[in-house]
Amino acid sequence: MNATELGLPMTVAAQGLPARVRIHEVGARDGLQNEKATVATAVKAEFVRRLAGTGLSTIEATSFVHPKWVPQLADAEDLYAAVADLPVSLPVLVPNERGLDRALALGARRVAVFASATESFARANLNRTVDESLAMFEPVVRRAKAEGVHVRGYLSMCFGDPWEGAVPVPQVVRVCRALLDMGCDELSLGDTIGVATPGHVTALLGALDGADVPVAALGVHFHDTYGQALSNTLAALQRGVTTVDASAGGLGGCPYAKSATGNLATEDLVWMLRGLGIDTGVDLDRLVATSVWMAAHLGRPSPSRTVRALSHQEQ
Amino acid sequence: MNATELGLPMTVAAQGLPARVRIHEVGARDGLQNEKATVATAVKAEFVRRLAGTGLSTIEATSFVHPKWVPQLADAEDLYAAVADLPVSLPVLVPNERGLDRALALGARRVAVFASATESFARANLNRTVDESLAMFEPVVRRAKAEGVHVRGYLSMCFGDPWEGAVPVPQVVRVCRALLDMGCDELSLGDTIGVATPGHVTALLGALDGADVPVAALGVHFHDTYGQALSNTLAALQRGVTTVDASAGGLGGCPYAKSATGNLATEDLVWMLRGLGIDTGVDLDRLVATSVWMAAHLGRPSPSRTVRALSHQEQ
Protein backbone atom coordinates (compact mmCIF):
# COMPACT_ATOMS: atom_id res chain seq x y z
CA MET A 1 0.00 0.00 0.00
CA ASN A 2 1.16 3.48 -0.64
CA ALA A 3 0.99 6.24 1.95
CA THR A 4 -2.31 7.75 0.88
CA GLU A 5 -3.97 4.32 1.08
CA LEU A 6 -2.68 4.14 4.66
CA GLY A 7 -4.37 7.46 5.45
CA LEU A 8 -1.12 9.41 5.40
CA PRO A 9 -0.20 12.14 5.85
CA MET A 10 -2.09 12.52 9.10
CA THR A 11 -4.09 15.73 9.10
CA VAL A 12 -2.98 17.98 11.95
CA ALA A 13 -3.98 21.61 11.51
CA ALA A 14 -1.65 24.42 12.55
CA GLN A 15 -2.84 27.65 14.10
CA GLY A 16 -3.05 30.84 12.10
CA LEU A 17 -3.23 29.30 8.64
CA PRO A 18 -5.99 29.79 6.08
CA ALA A 19 -8.79 27.20 5.82
CA ARG A 20 -8.57 27.08 2.05
CA VAL A 21 -5.89 27.71 -0.58
CA ARG A 22 -6.45 28.31 -4.26
CA ILE A 23 -3.78 26.68 -6.38
CA HIS A 24 -2.93 28.54 -9.56
CA GLU A 25 -1.74 25.68 -11.77
CA VAL A 26 0.96 26.74 -14.25
CA GLY A 27 2.19 23.39 -15.60
CA ALA A 28 0.56 23.67 -19.01
CA ARG A 29 2.05 27.10 -19.71
CA ASP A 30 5.08 27.79 -17.52
CA GLY A 31 5.87 24.09 -17.31
CA LEU A 32 5.84 23.35 -21.02
CA GLN A 33 7.04 26.61 -22.54
CA ASN A 34 10.71 25.67 -22.34
CA GLU A 35 10.37 22.15 -23.73
CA LYS A 36 12.78 21.66 -26.60
CA ALA A 37 10.70 19.10 -28.47
CA THR A 38 7.32 20.29 -29.65
CA VAL A 39 4.47 18.95 -27.55
CA ALA A 40 1.44 18.25 -29.73
CA THR A 41 -1.53 20.53 -29.17
CA ALA A 42 -3.75 17.52 -28.55
CA VAL A 43 -1.42 16.33 -25.77
CA LYS A 44 -1.44 19.74 -24.15
CA ALA A 45 -5.22 19.92 -24.37
CA GLU A 46 -5.54 16.47 -22.83
CA PHE A 47 -3.14 17.56 -20.09
CA VAL A 48 -5.29 20.61 -19.27
CA ARG A 49 -8.39 18.42 -19.37
CA ARG A 50 -6.89 15.90 -16.96
CA LEU A 51 -5.70 18.69 -14.66
CA ALA A 52 -9.25 20.04 -14.57
CA GLY A 53 -10.41 16.52 -13.67
CA THR A 54 -8.26 16.56 -10.53
CA GLY A 55 -10.27 19.43 -9.04
CA LEU A 56 -7.84 22.24 -9.84
CA SER A 57 -9.93 25.37 -10.38
CA THR A 58 -7.40 27.69 -12.05
CA ILE A 59 -5.29 26.31 -14.88
CA GLU A 60 -3.09 28.67 -16.81
CA ALA A 61 -3.53 27.48 -20.35
CA THR A 62 -1.05 29.22 -22.63
CA SER A 63 0.59 32.49 -23.58
CA PHE A 64 -0.20 34.81 -26.46
CA VAL A 65 3.38 35.86 -26.99
CA HIS A 66 4.86 36.06 -30.45
CA PRO A 67 5.86 32.52 -31.60
CA LYS A 68 9.33 33.84 -32.37
CA TRP A 69 9.97 34.15 -28.62
CA VAL A 70 8.25 31.01 -27.36
CA PRO A 71 7.85 28.57 -30.26
CA GLN A 72 6.39 25.93 -27.93
CA LEU A 73 3.31 28.12 -27.45
CA ALA A 74 2.72 28.95 -31.12
CA ASP A 75 -0.47 26.92 -30.92
CA ALA A 76 -2.06 29.21 -28.33
CA GLU A 77 -5.28 29.78 -30.34
CA ASP A 78 -5.82 26.12 -31.12
CA LEU A 79 -5.06 25.00 -27.58
CA TYR A 80 -7.33 27.58 -26.00
CA ALA A 81 -10.19 26.67 -28.31
CA ALA A 82 -9.71 23.00 -27.44
CA VAL A 83 -10.12 23.54 -23.68
CA ALA A 84 -12.38 26.60 -23.48
CA ASP A 85 -15.39 24.44 -22.60
CA LEU A 86 -13.86 23.26 -19.31
CA PRO A 87 -15.65 24.52 -16.18
CA VAL A 88 -12.47 26.05 -14.72
CA SER A 89 -10.68 29.39 -14.92
CA LEU A 90 -8.21 29.39 -17.81
CA PRO A 91 -5.96 32.44 -17.51
CA VAL A 92 -3.62 33.23 -20.40
CA LEU A 93 -0.54 35.39 -20.63
CA VAL A 94 -0.60 38.50 -22.79
CA PRO A 95 2.62 40.45 -23.24
CA ASN A 96 1.12 43.42 -25.09
CA GLU A 97 -1.96 44.78 -26.82
CA ARG A 98 -1.59 42.40 -29.75
CA GLY A 99 -1.58 39.45 -27.33
CA LEU A 100 -4.63 40.86 -25.57
CA ASP A 101 -6.45 41.15 -28.93
CA ARG A 102 -5.81 37.46 -29.58
CA ALA A 103 -6.96 36.45 -26.09
CA LEU A 104 -10.12 38.57 -26.22
CA ALA A 105 -11.00 37.24 -29.66
CA LEU A 106 -11.10 33.77 -28.12
CA GLY A 107 -13.25 34.90 -25.21
CA ALA A 108 -10.58 34.70 -22.50
CA ARG A 109 -11.89 36.02 -19.17
CA ARG A 110 -8.59 36.07 -17.29
CA VAL A 111 -5.30 37.41 -18.57
CA ALA A 112 -1.88 38.03 -17.07
CA VAL A 113 0.93 40.46 -17.79
CA PHE A 114 4.50 39.77 -16.70
CA ALA A 115 6.66 42.45 -15.17
CA SER A 116 10.09 42.41 -13.57
CA ALA A 117 11.23 43.71 -10.20
CA THR A 118 14.74 44.29 -11.56
CA GLU A 119 16.16 46.37 -14.37
CA SER A 120 18.42 43.53 -15.52
CA PHE A 121 15.60 41.06 -16.05
CA ALA A 122 13.30 43.71 -17.56
CA ARG A 123 16.06 44.34 -20.08
CA ALA A 124 16.73 40.64 -20.72
CA ASN A 125 13.13 39.49 -20.90
CA LEU A 126 11.30 42.55 -22.22
CA ASN A 127 14.08 44.66 -23.75
CA ARG A 128 12.85 47.62 -21.72
CA THR A 129 13.45 49.35 -18.42
CA VAL A 130 11.10 48.49 -15.57
CA ASP A 131 9.21 51.74 -16.07
CA GLU A 132 9.04 51.30 -19.84
CA SER A 133 7.58 47.85 -19.36
CA LEU A 134 5.01 49.18 -16.91
CA ALA A 135 4.07 51.80 -19.50
CA MET A 136 3.64 49.01 -22.07
CA PHE A 137 1.34 47.07 -19.74
CA GLU A 138 -0.84 50.02 -18.76
CA PRO A 139 -3.05 50.10 -21.89
CA VAL A 140 -3.24 46.29 -21.82
CA VAL A 141 -4.55 46.30 -18.27
CA ARG A 142 -6.88 49.23 -18.93
CA ARG A 143 -8.47 47.59 -21.95
CA ALA A 144 -8.79 44.24 -20.19
CA LYS A 145 -10.50 45.86 -17.23
CA ALA A 146 -12.83 47.80 -19.59
CA GLU A 147 -13.84 44.40 -21.01
CA GLY A 148 -14.47 43.06 -17.48
CA VAL A 149 -11.52 40.69 -17.73
CA HIS A 150 -9.59 39.68 -14.58
CA VAL A 151 -5.92 40.69 -14.72
CA ARG A 152 -3.04 39.05 -12.91
CA GLY A 153 0.34 40.76 -12.76
CA TYR A 154 3.33 38.46 -12.59
CA LEU A 155 6.37 39.97 -11.00
CA SER A 156 9.69 38.20 -11.60
CA MET A 157 12.88 38.30 -9.52
CA CYS A 158 11.22 39.40 -6.27
CA PHE A 159 13.87 37.71 -4.09
CA GLY A 160 17.07 37.78 -6.09
CA ASP A 161 18.32 38.32 -9.62
CA PRO A 162 20.96 36.35 -11.54
CA TRP A 163 22.76 39.54 -12.59
CA GLU A 164 22.13 41.88 -9.68
CA GLY A 165 22.11 39.44 -6.75
CA ALA A 166 20.15 40.96 -3.89
CA VAL A 167 16.86 42.69 -4.74
CA PRO A 168 15.86 45.28 -2.12
CA VAL A 169 12.37 44.78 -0.70
CA PRO A 170 11.30 48.44 -1.32
CA GLN A 171 12.11 48.02 -5.02
CA VAL A 172 9.69 45.07 -5.21
CA VAL A 173 7.02 46.93 -3.27
CA ARG A 174 7.24 49.86 -5.69
CA VAL A 175 6.52 47.70 -8.75
CA CYS A 176 3.75 45.82 -6.92
CA ARG A 177 2.07 49.12 -6.08
CA ALA A 178 2.40 50.29 -9.68
CA LEU A 179 0.80 47.10 -11.04
CA LEU A 180 -2.11 47.36 -8.62
CA ASP A 181 -2.52 51.07 -9.26
CA MET A 182 -2.85 50.47 -13.01
CA GLY A 183 -5.68 48.03 -12.30
CA CYS A 184 -4.26 44.54 -11.79
CA ASP A 185 -6.65 42.46 -9.67
CA GLU A 186 -4.01 40.10 -8.40
CA LEU A 187 -0.22 39.85 -8.23
CA SER A 188 2.02 36.81 -8.32
CA LEU A 189 5.29 37.33 -6.46
CA GLY A 190 7.85 35.32 -8.39
CA ASP A 191 11.04 33.83 -6.98
CA THR A 192 12.27 33.20 -10.49
CA ILE A 193 15.68 31.79 -9.53
CA GLY A 194 14.57 30.06 -6.32
CA VAL A 195 16.66 32.03 -3.83
CA ALA A 196 13.96 33.09 -1.37
CA THR A 197 14.07 31.89 2.21
CA PRO A 198 11.24 32.11 4.75
CA GLY A 199 12.34 35.26 6.61
CA HIS A 200 12.65 37.09 3.30
CA VAL A 201 9.13 36.01 2.34
CA THR A 202 7.78 37.24 5.66
CA ALA A 203 9.62 40.55 5.28
CA LEU A 204 8.33 41.19 1.76
CA LEU A 205 4.76 40.35 2.73
CA GLY A 206 5.05 42.61 5.75
CA ALA A 207 6.35 45.48 3.61
CA LEU A 208 3.51 44.99 1.12
CA ASP A 209 1.03 45.09 3.98
CA GLY A 210 2.64 48.34 5.08
CA ALA A 211 2.12 49.69 1.55
CA ASP A 212 -1.61 48.88 1.73
CA VAL A 213 -1.36 45.93 -0.64
CA PRO A 214 -4.13 43.57 0.49
CA VAL A 215 -2.88 40.04 1.09
CA ALA A 216 -5.98 38.72 -0.67
CA ALA A 217 -4.57 40.21 -3.88
CA LEU A 218 -1.28 38.32 -3.55
CA GLY A 219 -0.19 34.98 -4.87
CA VAL A 220 3.25 33.45 -4.39
CA HIS A 221 5.24 31.71 -7.10
CA PHE A 222 8.20 29.85 -5.66
CA HIS A 223 10.81 27.81 -7.44
CA ASP A 224 12.41 24.77 -5.89
CA THR A 225 15.90 25.32 -7.29
CA TYR A 226 17.43 25.14 -3.80
CA GLY A 227 14.65 23.04 -2.27
CA GLN A 228 13.08 26.02 -0.51
CA ALA A 229 9.71 26.35 -2.24
CA LEU A 230 7.57 24.64 0.39
CA SER A 231 9.13 26.26 3.44
CA ASN A 232 8.67 29.60 1.69
CA THR A 233 5.07 28.67 1.02
CA LEU A 234 4.57 27.85 4.69
CA ALA A 235 5.93 31.28 5.63
CA ALA A 236 3.53 32.88 3.12
CA LEU A 237 0.54 30.94 4.50
CA GLN A 238 1.48 32.12 7.98
CA ARG A 239 1.17 35.70 6.65
CA GLY A 240 -2.30 34.98 5.26
CA VAL A 241 -1.56 34.28 1.60
CA THR A 242 -4.24 32.03 0.05
CA THR A 243 -3.13 31.81 -3.59
CA VAL A 244 -0.15 29.61 -4.43
CA ASP A 245 1.25 28.96 -7.90
CA ALA A 246 2.49 25.46 -8.63
CA SER A 247 3.22 23.22 -11.59
CA ALA A 248 1.90 19.67 -11.87
CA GLY A 249 4.78 17.25 -11.55
CA GLY A 250 7.18 20.16 -11.07
CA LEU A 251 7.24 20.75 -14.84
CA GLY A 252 9.38 23.63 -15.95
CA GLY A 253 12.88 23.05 -14.80
CA CYS A 254 16.09 24.87 -15.25
CA PRO A 255 17.33 24.48 -18.80
CA TYR A 256 20.73 23.16 -17.76
CA ALA A 257 19.74 19.92 -16.08
CA LYS A 258 17.45 17.09 -17.02
CA SER A 259 14.58 16.84 -14.53
CA ALA A 260 16.09 19.66 -12.55
CA THR A 261 13.75 21.61 -10.45
CA GLY A 262 12.19 24.89 -11.27
CA ASN A 263 8.58 25.29 -10.29
CA LEU A 264 7.17 24.03 -7.03
CA ALA A 265 5.46 20.72 -7.80
CA THR A 266 1.71 20.89 -7.25
CA GLU A 267 1.75 17.42 -5.69
CA ASP A 268 4.33 18.40 -3.05
CA LEU A 269 2.18 21.44 -2.24
CA VAL A 270 -1.05 19.44 -2.06
CA TRP A 271 0.65 16.90 0.23
CA MET A 272 1.65 19.62 2.69
CA LEU A 273 -1.74 21.34 2.55
CA ARG A 274 -3.53 18.03 3.05
CA GLY A 275 -1.43 17.37 6.14
CA LEU A 276 -2.25 20.84 7.41
CA GLY A 277 -5.97 20.27 6.84
CA ILE A 278 -6.12 23.09 4.29
CA ASP A 279 -8.72 22.51 1.60
CA THR A 280 -7.58 22.68 -2.03
CA GLY A 281 -10.29 20.66 -3.75
CA VAL A 282 -7.59 18.58 -5.48
CA ASP A 283 -7.60 14.79 -5.72
CA LEU A 284 -3.93 13.97 -5.11
CA ASP A 285 -3.97 10.48 -6.61
CA ARG A 286 -5.53 11.73 -9.85
CA LEU A 287 -3.01 14.55 -9.97
CA VAL A 288 -0.09 12.12 -9.56
CA ALA A 289 -1.54 9.94 -12.31
CA THR A 290 -1.79 13.00 -14.57
CA SER A 291 1.83 13.93 -13.95
CA VAL A 292 3.00 10.37 -14.57
CA TRP A 293 1.05 10.41 -17.84
CA MET A 294 2.63 13.73 -18.87
CA ALA A 295 6.10 12.56 -17.85
CA ALA A 296 5.70 9.57 -20.16
CA HIS A 297 4.86 11.96 -23.03
CA LEU A 298 7.90 14.08 -22.28
CA GLY A 299 10.13 11.04 -21.92
CA ARG A 300 11.59 11.91 -18.56
CA PRO A 301 10.54 11.45 -14.97
CA SER A 302 8.84 14.06 -12.84
CA PRO A 303 11.13 15.85 -10.39
CA SER A 304 8.29 15.99 -7.86
CA ARG A 305 9.19 14.01 -4.76
CA THR A 306 5.56 13.26 -4.04
CA VAL A 307 4.98 12.00 -7.58
CA ARG A 308 8.01 9.75 -7.27
CA ALA A 309 7.07 8.42 -3.86
CA LEU A 310 3.42 7.76 -4.70
CA SER A 311 4.11 6.28 -8.12
CA HIS A 312 7.30 4.44 -7.14
CA GLN A 313 8.70 6.06 -10.21
CA GLU A 314 12.34 5.38 -11.00
CA GLN A 315 14.46 8.43 -11.56
CA MET B 1 28.64 33.35 -11.23
CA ASN B 2 26.66 31.08 -9.00
CA ALA B 3 24.20 32.34 -6.45
CA THR B 4 26.53 32.31 -3.46
CA GLU B 5 29.06 34.41 -5.38
CA LEU B 6 26.25 36.91 -5.97
CA GLY B 7 25.63 37.12 -2.24
CA LEU B 8 22.48 34.99 -2.39
CA PRO B 9 20.41 34.01 -0.58
CA MET B 10 19.85 37.39 1.01
CA THR B 11 19.92 37.09 4.79
CA VAL B 12 16.61 38.19 6.27
CA ALA B 13 16.02 36.96 9.81
CA ALA B 14 12.60 35.84 10.96
CA GLN B 15 11.23 36.50 14.43
CA GLY B 16 11.13 33.77 17.03
CA LEU B 17 13.82 31.53 15.58
CA PRO B 18 17.00 30.38 17.31
CA ALA B 19 20.24 32.26 16.67
CA ARG B 20 22.20 29.08 16.16
CA VAL B 21 21.44 25.53 15.02
CA ARG B 22 23.62 22.48 15.54
CA ILE B 23 23.54 20.17 12.55
CA HIS B 24 23.88 16.49 13.39
CA GLU B 25 25.44 15.18 10.18
CA VAL B 26 24.40 11.58 9.40
CA GLY B 27 25.67 11.12 5.84
CA ALA B 28 28.60 8.87 6.70
CA ARG B 29 26.45 6.45 8.70
CA ASP B 30 22.77 6.73 7.79
CA GLY B 31 23.65 7.88 4.29
CA LEU B 32 26.03 5.08 3.40
CA GLN B 33 24.62 2.14 5.34
CA ASN B 34 22.26 1.07 2.56
CA GLU B 35 24.76 1.32 -0.29
CA LYS B 36 24.80 -1.91 -2.24
CA ALA B 37 28.40 -1.69 -3.38
CA THR B 38 30.99 -1.66 -0.62
CA VAL B 39 32.45 1.78 -0.03
CA ALA B 40 36.14 1.50 0.87
CA THR B 41 36.98 2.42 4.45
CA ALA B 42 39.54 4.95 3.21
CA VAL B 43 36.85 6.70 1.16
CA LYS B 44 34.50 6.84 4.13
CA ALA B 45 37.29 8.19 6.33
CA GLU B 46 38.13 10.84 3.75
CA PHE B 47 34.44 11.72 3.57
CA VAL B 48 34.26 12.23 7.34
CA ARG B 49 37.48 14.24 7.21
CA ARG B 50 36.14 16.50 4.46
CA LEU B 51 32.84 16.92 6.32
CA ALA B 52 34.78 18.01 9.39
CA GLY B 53 36.61 20.50 7.17
CA THR B 54 33.33 22.20 6.26
CA GLY B 55 32.74 23.27 9.85
CA LEU B 56 30.22 20.57 10.82
CA SER B 57 30.71 19.89 14.52
CA THR B 58 28.81 16.62 14.95
CA ILE B 59 29.45 13.87 12.42
CA GLU B 60 27.90 10.48 13.04
CA ALA B 61 30.68 8.14 12.01
CA THR B 62 29.40 4.57 11.93
CA SER B 63 27.33 1.93 13.69
CA PHE B 64 28.50 -0.97 15.84
CA VAL B 65 25.76 -3.30 14.70
CA HIS B 66 26.52 -6.90 13.80
CA PRO B 67 27.93 -7.00 10.23
CA LYS B 68 25.29 -9.60 9.37
CA TRP B 69 22.64 -6.86 9.57
CA VAL B 70 24.51 -3.97 7.97
CA PRO B 71 27.43 -5.34 5.92
CA GLN B 72 28.31 -1.84 4.71
CA LEU B 73 29.35 -0.92 8.27
CA ALA B 74 31.44 -4.02 9.00
CA ASP B 75 34.49 -1.74 9.06
CA ALA B 76 33.24 0.26 12.06
CA GLU B 77 36.42 -0.26 14.13
CA ASP B 78 38.80 0.63 11.30
CA LEU B 79 36.78 3.64 10.23
CA TYR B 80 36.45 5.00 13.75
CA ALA B 81 40.17 4.61 14.37
CA ALA B 82 40.90 6.45 11.12
CA VAL B 83 38.91 9.55 12.08
CA ALA B 84 39.14 9.58 15.89
CA ASP B 85 41.75 12.36 15.79
CA LEU B 86 39.34 14.87 14.24
CA PRO B 87 38.38 17.81 16.50
CA VAL B 88 34.64 17.12 16.16
CA SER B 89 32.05 15.00 17.94
CA LEU B 90 31.85 11.56 16.37
CA PRO B 91 28.77 9.77 17.70
CA VAL B 92 28.33 6.10 16.85
CA LEU B 93 25.31 3.83 16.93
CA VAL B 94 25.22 0.94 19.40
CA PRO B 95 22.31 -1.48 19.25
CA ASN B 96 23.13 -3.45 22.38
CA GLU B 97 25.74 -4.07 25.07
CA ARG B 98 28.10 -5.83 22.67
CA GLY B 99 28.01 -2.78 20.41
CA LEU B 100 28.65 -0.52 23.37
CA ASP B 101 31.68 -2.63 24.35
CA ARG B 102 33.13 -2.15 20.89
CA ALA B 103 32.48 1.61 20.93
CA LEU B 104 33.92 2.10 24.41
CA ALA B 105 37.01 0.06 23.52
CA LEU B 106 37.72 2.62 20.80
CA GLY B 107 37.19 5.56 23.15
CA ALA B 108 33.87 6.76 21.73
CA ARG B 109 32.43 9.62 23.81
CA ARG B 110 29.01 9.79 22.17
CA VAL B 111 26.75 6.84 21.38
CA ALA B 112 23.20 6.42 20.15
CA VAL B 113 20.55 3.76 20.58
CA PHE B 114 17.67 3.41 18.12
CA ALA B 115 14.14 2.80 19.30
CA SER B 116 10.80 2.71 17.52
CA ALA B 117 7.58 4.57 18.24
CA THR B 118 5.55 1.76 16.69
CA GLU B 119 5.19 -1.95 17.42
CA SER B 120 5.39 -2.86 13.73
CA PHE B 121 8.75 -1.22 13.19
CA ALA B 122 10.13 -2.45 16.53
CA ARG B 123 9.24 -5.94 15.36
CA ALA B 124 10.67 -5.45 11.86
CA ASN B 125 13.86 -3.65 12.86
CA LEU B 126 14.62 -5.06 16.31
CA ASN B 127 12.55 -8.25 16.42
CA ARG B 128 11.07 -7.12 19.73
CA THR B 129 8.10 -5.23 21.09
CA VAL B 130 8.60 -1.55 21.88
CA ASP B 131 8.86 -2.32 25.58
CA GLU B 132 11.23 -5.25 25.02
CA SER B 133 13.49 -2.99 22.96
CA LEU B 134 13.43 -0.32 25.68
CA ALA B 135 14.41 -3.02 28.18
CA MET B 136 17.30 -4.01 25.89
CA PHE B 137 18.52 -0.40 25.71
CA GLU B 138 18.30 0.31 29.42
CA PRO B 139 21.57 -1.39 30.47
CA VAL B 140 23.29 0.10 27.41
CA VAL B 141 22.28 3.60 28.41
CA ARG B 142 23.07 2.99 32.09
CA ARG B 143 26.58 1.74 31.36
CA ALA B 144 27.27 4.52 28.87
CA LYS B 145 26.21 7.15 31.38
CA ALA B 146 28.35 5.48 34.07
CA GLU B 147 31.30 5.94 31.71
CA GLY B 148 30.41 9.60 31.21
CA VAL B 149 29.39 8.99 27.60
CA HIS B 150 26.72 11.17 25.94
CA VAL B 151 23.70 9.15 24.77
CA ARG B 152 21.33 10.02 21.96
CA GLY B 153 18.09 8.11 21.54
CA TYR B 154 16.81 7.80 18.00
CA LEU B 155 13.10 7.29 17.72
CA SER B 156 11.80 6.02 14.39
CA MET B 157 8.30 6.35 12.88
CA CYS B 158 7.26 9.37 14.95
CA PHE B 159 4.87 10.68 12.26
CA GLY B 160 3.63 7.62 10.41
CA ASP B 161 4.43 3.97 9.89
CA PRO B 162 4.42 1.95 6.66
CA TRP B 163 2.35 -0.84 8.26
CA GLU B 164 0.22 1.04 10.77
CA GLY B 165 -0.35 4.33 8.99
CA ALA B 166 -1.15 7.01 11.55
CA VAL B 167 0.95 7.10 14.72
CA PRO B 168 -0.84 8.78 17.63
CA VAL B 169 1.10 11.62 19.22
CA PRO B 170 0.67 10.26 22.81
CA GLN B 171 2.29 6.99 21.75
CA VAL B 172 5.37 8.89 20.59
CA VAL B 173 5.45 10.98 23.76
CA ARG B 174 5.39 7.83 25.90
CA VAL B 175 8.50 6.37 24.25
CA CYS B 176 10.30 9.72 24.33
CA ARG B 177 9.65 9.95 28.08
CA ALA B 178 10.89 6.40 28.59
CA LEU B 179 14.12 7.09 26.70
CA LEU B 180 14.79 10.25 28.69
CA ASP B 181 13.87 8.55 31.97
CA MET B 182 16.42 5.80 31.36
CA GLY B 183 19.11 8.44 30.93
CA CYS B 184 19.29 9.52 27.29
CA ASP B 185 20.73 13.03 27.02
CA GLU B 186 19.12 13.81 23.70
CA LEU B 187 16.39 12.44 21.44
CA SER B 188 16.12 12.49 17.67
CA LEU B 189 12.51 12.48 16.47
CA GLY B 190 12.57 10.49 13.25
CA ASP B 191 10.14 10.84 10.37
CA THR B 192 11.43 7.62 8.88
CA ILE B 193 9.05 7.49 5.90
CA GLY B 194 8.82 11.22 5.33
CA VAL B 195 5.12 11.72 6.02
CA ALA B 196 5.28 14.54 8.57
CA THR B 197 3.75 17.91 7.78
CA PRO B 198 4.30 21.15 9.71
CA GLY B 199 1.17 21.11 11.87
CA HIS B 200 1.97 17.58 12.98
CA VAL B 201 5.49 18.64 13.93
CA THR B 202 4.13 21.56 15.95
CA ALA B 203 1.61 19.29 17.67
CA LEU B 204 4.19 16.67 18.65
CA LEU B 205 6.60 19.28 19.97
CA GLY B 206 3.76 20.86 21.94
CA ALA B 207 2.80 17.52 23.44
CA LEU B 208 6.41 16.82 24.39
CA ASP B 209 6.59 20.21 26.05
CA GLY B 210 3.45 19.29 27.97
CA ALA B 211 5.19 16.09 29.12
CA ASP B 212 8.12 18.09 30.48
CA VAL B 213 10.50 17.07 27.71
CA PRO B 214 12.87 20.04 27.34
CA VAL B 215 13.13 21.27 23.76
CA ALA B 216 16.89 21.58 24.22
CA ALA B 217 17.00 17.77 24.45
CA LEU B 218 15.25 17.33 21.11
CA GLY B 219 16.59 16.95 17.62
CA VAL B 220 14.50 16.45 14.50
CA HIS B 221 15.27 13.97 11.76
CA PHE B 222 13.15 14.58 8.69
CA HIS B 223 13.10 12.70 5.43
CA ASP B 224 12.40 14.39 2.14
CA THR B 225 10.41 11.56 0.57
CA TYR B 226 7.47 13.87 -0.15
CA GLY B 227 9.53 17.07 -0.26
CA GLN B 228 8.43 18.16 3.22
CA ALA B 229 11.66 18.03 5.22
CA LEU B 230 12.50 21.73 5.16
CA SER B 231 9.01 23.03 5.88
CA ASN B 232 8.88 20.59 8.80
CA THR B 233 12.26 21.89 9.93
CA LEU B 234 10.95 25.45 9.81
CA ALA B 235 7.99 24.43 11.99
CA ALA B 236 10.42 22.80 14.45
CA LEU B 237 12.65 25.89 14.58
CA GLN B 238 9.56 27.97 15.31
CA ARG B 239 9.00 25.73 18.35
CA GLY B 240 12.56 26.29 19.57
CA VAL B 241 14.34 23.18 18.29
CA THR B 242 18.05 23.83 17.74
CA THR B 243 19.35 20.39 16.68
CA VAL B 244 18.61 19.23 13.16
CA ASP B 245 19.76 15.97 11.57
CA ALA B 246 20.76 16.08 7.93
CA SER B 247 22.80 14.11 5.43
CA ALA B 248 25.42 15.68 3.18
CA GLY B 249 24.19 15.59 -0.40
CA GLY B 250 20.95 13.93 0.76
CA LEU B 251 22.73 10.57 0.94
CA GLY B 252 20.58 7.69 2.07
CA GLY B 253 17.65 7.37 -0.23
CA CYS B 254 14.83 4.97 -0.55
CA PRO B 255 16.07 1.65 -1.82
CA TYR B 256 13.63 1.53 -4.73
CA ALA B 257 14.78 4.52 -6.73
CA LYS B 258 18.15 5.74 -7.89
CA SER B 259 18.95 9.11 -6.33
CA ALA B 260 15.56 9.12 -4.65
CA THR B 261 15.27 11.15 -1.57
CA GLY B 262 15.45 9.97 1.96
CA ASN B 263 17.34 12.17 4.34
CA LEU B 264 17.11 15.92 4.31
CA ALA B 265 20.17 17.18 2.42
CA THR B 266 22.50 19.17 4.65
CA GLU B 267 23.09 21.68 1.86
CA ASP B 268 19.37 22.45 1.47
CA LEU B 269 19.19 22.96 5.23
CA VAL B 270 22.27 25.19 5.34
CA TRP B 271 20.86 27.27 2.48
CA MET B 272 17.64 27.93 4.40
CA LEU B 273 19.45 28.65 7.66
CA ARG B 274 21.87 31.00 5.92
CA GLY B 275 18.92 32.91 4.46
CA LEU B 276 17.36 33.08 7.91
CA GLY B 277 20.59 34.38 9.42
CA ILE B 278 20.90 31.32 11.68
CA ASP B 279 24.49 30.40 12.39
CA THR B 280 25.58 26.81 11.64
CA GLY B 281 29.34 27.23 11.31
CA VAL B 282 29.22 25.41 7.97
CA ASP B 283 30.97 26.55 4.78
CA LEU B 284 28.33 25.80 2.15
CA ASP B 285 30.66 25.82 -0.85
CA ARG B 286 33.03 23.34 0.79
CA LEU B 287 30.08 21.15 1.74
CA VAL B 288 28.78 21.15 -1.83
CA ALA B 289 32.26 20.23 -3.07
CA THR B 290 32.39 17.37 -0.57
CA SER B 291 29.04 16.02 -1.72
CA VAL B 292 30.04 16.28 -5.38
CA TRP B 293 33.23 14.36 -4.53
CA MET B 294 31.24 11.65 -2.71
CA ALA B 295 28.67 11.44 -5.52
CA ALA B 296 31.49 10.74 -7.95
CA HIS B 297 32.64 7.87 -5.72
CA LEU B 298 29.14 6.44 -5.56
CA GLY B 299 28.65 6.87 -9.29
CA ARG B 300 25.36 8.75 -9.11
CA PRO B 301 24.35 12.35 -8.65
CA SER B 302 23.32 13.91 -5.39
CA PRO B 303 19.56 14.35 -4.95
CA SER B 304 20.17 17.62 -3.07
CA ARG B 305 18.67 20.50 -4.99
CA THR B 306 21.19 22.93 -3.57
CA VAL B 307 24.09 20.67 -4.56
CA ARG B 308 22.71 20.45 -8.08
CA ALA B 309 22.07 24.15 -8.41
CA LEU B 310 25.44 25.24 -7.03
CA SER B 311 27.44 22.62 -8.90
CA HIS B 312 25.38 22.75 -12.11
CA GLN B 313 25.36 19.00 -11.76
CA GLU B 314 23.44 17.07 -14.38
CA GLN B 315 20.92 14.62 -13.04
TrEMBL record, chains A, B:
Protein family per UniProt: Belongs to the HMG-CoA lyase family.
Ranges of residues in domain Pyruvate carboxyltransferase: 21-288
Protein's organism: Streptomyces capillispiralis
Lineage of the species this protein comes from: Bacteria, Bacillati, Actinomycetota, Actinomycetes, Kitasatosporales
Single GO biological process annotation from the record: ketone body biosynthetic process
Superkingdom per UniProt: Bacteria
Name under which the protein is recorded: Hydroxymethylglutaryl-CoA lyase
Entry keyword set: Lyase, Metal-binding
GO molecular function, one term: metal ion binding
